Amino acid sequence: MAFVAEKHSEFFVRTLTALRSREPGADDLLNARVAQRVDPPWIEECYESLPPGLDPDTRLRRLRQWVMLTLMERDMRGEAPLEEVCEAMTALAEFATGQALEIASHELREQFGTPRDADGTPIDLIAVGMGKAGARELNVSSDLDLVFLIRGDGETDGLNAAGEDSRRRAQSALEFAHRVARRVLNLLSESTADGFVFRVDTRLRPNGDSGPLICTLGALETYFQAQGREWERFAWLKGRVIAHGPLADPTVHQLDRLALEMIVEPFVFRRYLDYEIFQALREVHGLIRAEARKRDLRRAEGHDVKLGRGGIREIEFIAQLFQIVRGGRDTGLRDRATLRILPALAERGLLDAEEAQRLMESYRLLRRIEHMIQYRQDQQTHFLPSRPAVRADIAAMMSISPEDFEARLAETVGFVEKVFDALLTPEPASANGGGNGTRMGPPEGEQSGAPDDGENAEVDRHFAGLLEGARIQAARPAAQQAVRTLLSQARRQGIGPEAALRLTRLLEAICRRPAYLALLAEFPLAFERVLQMLSASKWAADYLTRHPVLLDELIDGNLFAPPDYEAWQRELAQALADARLGDGPDTERQLDLARESHHAQIFRVLSRELAGLLTVERVSDELSDLADRVLAIAIETVWSQLRQRFREAPRFAAIAYGRLGGRELGYASDLDLVFLFDDEDPQAVEAYSRLAQRLSTWLSVRTAAGQLFEIDLRLRPNGEAGMLATSVRGFESYQRKSAWVWEHQALTRARYSAGDPSIGQWFEGFRRELLAEARDVGALANEIRSMRKRMHEGHPNRSEQFDLKHDS
Q1: How far is residue 656's CA from residue 664's CA, in Å, rounded to a whole number?
Q2: pTM
Q3: 10 Å Cβ neighbour count for 265?
Q4: 345: Cα within 13 Å, side-chain hemisphere
Q5: What is the CA radius of gyration of the chain?
Q6: 472 vs 545: CA distance, rounded Å
Q7: What is the β-pairing status of strands 214-216 and 143-150?
Q8: Which residue in 101, 123, 67 sits closest to 188, CA to CA?
């Protein structure tokens, strides 16, 4: 049976001819292999079937020949989808790099011994695949972009493989790793009679060609912090460890990977919506496009399907743009593969579903064309010549007619170019808008001049101050125009001076957040709700300005629906459990998730109250219920991460006093808490004290997402001098023997809030019993008067206004 690829590829003919000359039955063997999917087990089996007497260089190169011949034939027969081809080439890169590392490391260990760190742990070379290798998207004649890393420096132990003393000079781990890396590069990329395995490019390492070939993890972190550039964030977005040396055990390798992940992740992903990356991506793409144009001018007319307009790189950039912008907050957008990211963007509403589907189809078509171009001569090229004969041949390789090929290519390039430009090309300044550095006039549709009345004049002053301010003037023209449009809508809604001032503060806070401006401009109902909120409440306006991420809530059709706090608690607890960094919890992300989720629920309560759907009492009930649930989640989360944890679930509870205890919580209320435990374990006192301390920090620390609650623990036995967590017996003894009258008064509003329910049940029983004890009414009255006097003295009101909380 003739092979389809023989008609179209000189490389296929040349390689198959060599194979036939040295292996009888080569055609039958190739047909048998073409009948199977090419995957990692296929590659290992093929490698093991090669003649055992071959040297390592030859074995790896002949393995590549078999992989290439098989993939080419399967692809041209239409039996291998794009994913199989790319994943097979990536699997080959991983296997070959791993084999090369093993060969080189063992050779060098025979001469210099094993490199070890200060603890005696072997130090292995780490090979990080960048770009398409990291994303498992390698093309059939791709460069292999590698960055070589080691954990840290050390020294070889000077022993040979037999463990005998060696007189050879010991080397530093860096020197050893450098020798290994050089040997690996030769094994992979040196051309012999059998060709090469991969062309290897190491220029993506820190400082490129001018930097050392090997970098320690510590040096990499320092480089990212001091010199890391925006384009390198895109490069490391796809970076992935594809192979380790063989000297350390798998546990050490896993720790090395985790350490690398902890360095790379915060460099690539920001904890906020990172819109500054738009301009950086424009600059990177501009440089790539300019370089592609230069190359195109040096050869015959044609089109670069990778770097040209509407090409593969623009589709990749569309996906990566959203990943860089939102991946810090949405871990589901960190997948390296383009064909998995595009549907994820559609699921989140970041791309239109039909648009995402067409981009996936475009990507598959362009990548297949790229492969067909490369199959012809096994050249690393993406250039599609304009010669009709060549294009017709490529169309035949894809089993489509030349006319269909040209039509589909033109449609694809035009579509990709349009989507890319819509995302990245700044909108031209309108007649009203002005460009950067241009003073903006009055809002769209309005005339400058004398206002109709005093209120309009004050609104005009607020709006003019915003438009002429430094932040708006420095914003992009598109952002400036969006602000103008929103101000015009606000004017048409009849906004008052106070709300106008609050609106200008909000817009100033978000003027560099294009997504928020676009949201308000594209969803008039959401903006109308914003204006209503700004008009109704200064506190609401300030809350929204501090947490503009809450604007997303305004487009939810269920904003005013009754809440299901039990479901919310389950979902938040699961989200916190899923927030992981390597093998451990991502504490910073957990803190932000808890704050963002709680802020969203507070905002929904506020929205329903301002809409007249909740009474004051109901607002307090819901805010108190939310606080109880946050406390329950926090106790579970913090305990699970405590080193002193000695049992699965803590016998520990939070007792709420004051506003929370009386279920009278306000939007900005502190939490007055007392922590109790009921546990006879010898470790209990230390563990629960540490739990109380960590819990207080977890709830009150301010992160980029804000704060959950201010926590007040002074109502515990002995106040600030007392233990942070008290045993139930110690609490009972203190309340019966040492507590002041005001501490019993505080108990009238105390209740179990979260934690071990059995402690809550005990507390409620004890509280009722204590408060029901007979008392001297006269002495009690005198004590209360005395305490009230001290409170007045502690909160003097020197103004002429009435203090709602403290005045008589």
Answers
A1: 11
A2: 0.62
A3: 17
A4: 29
A5: 34
A6: 16
A7: parallel
A8: 101
Cβ density class 668-679: b for 16+ within 10 Å, e for less: ebebbbbbbbbb
Tokens read off for 665:
């919580």
674-722 pLDDT, tens digit each: 999 999 999 999 999 999 999 999 999 998 888 999 999 999 998 888 8
Q: Identify the sign of the CA torsion 469, 471, 474, 476.
A: negative
Q: Tell me the DSSP string of 181-250.
A: HHHHHHHHH--BTTB-S-EEE-TTSTTGGGS-SEEEHHHHHHHHHHT--HHHHHHHHS-EEEEE-SSS-H
The pairing of strands 725-727 and 671-677 is parallel
Residue 487, helix vs strand vs coil: helix
**C-alpha–C-alpha distance, residues 264 and 375, integer Å:** 35
Contacts of 545 (CB under 8 A, 6+ apart): 502, 505, 506, 509
The two three-digit tokens of residue 143, written as one number:
């460069």
Nearest to 315 by CA among 420, 453, 411, 206: 420
Residue 291 has pLDDT above 60, yes or no: no
Side chain identity, residue 117: D
For 371, residues 6+ apart whose C-beta sits below 8 A from its C-beta are: 75, 85, 139, 140
Is the confidence at residue 381, as pLDDT, over 70?
yes
**Distance of alpha carbon 48 from alpha carbon 39, whole angstroms:** 14
In angstroms, the CA 52 to CA 350 distance is 53
| CA atoms of 259 and 265, how far apart (whole Å) | 10
178 pLDDT above the threshold of 90:
yes
Pair 405, 395: CB distance under 8 Å: yes
Helices (H), 348-476: 353-377, 388-397, 402-424, 454-468, 470-474
Cα gap 234→282, rounded to integer Å: 12
Spatial distance between the Cα atoms of 172 and 165, rounded to a whole number of angstroms: 18
Average pLDDT, the chain: 87
**Residue 655 neighbours by CB under 8 Å, 6+ apart:** 661, 673, 674, 675, 676, 750, 751, 752, 753, 763
Both structure tokens of 679? 């546990």
Q: How far is Cα 113 from Cα 108, in angstroms, rounded to an integer?
A: 7
| Alpha carbons within 13 A on the beta-carbon side of 589 | 23
User: 215 — phi, psi (to 5°)?
Assistant: -130, 135
Q: Scanning the structure block, which residue is given the tokens 């699965």?
A: 648
Residue 707 burial (CB count, 10 A): 15
- Nearest to 160, CA basis, from 105, 123, 116, 112: 112
User: Which structure tokens are listed for 59?
Assistant: 């074995």
Q: How far is CA 797 from CA 439, 786, 800, 802, in A?
A: 47, 18, 8, 8
Q: Between 312-326 and 230-237, two packed helices, what is the crossing angle to 10 degrees?
A: 100
For residue 400 the two structure tokens come to 């489509």
CB atoms within 10 A of CB 164: 7
Q: DSSP label at 152?
A: -
**Structure token pair of residue 725:** 């967590």
E strand or H helix at 326, and its extent? helix 312-326
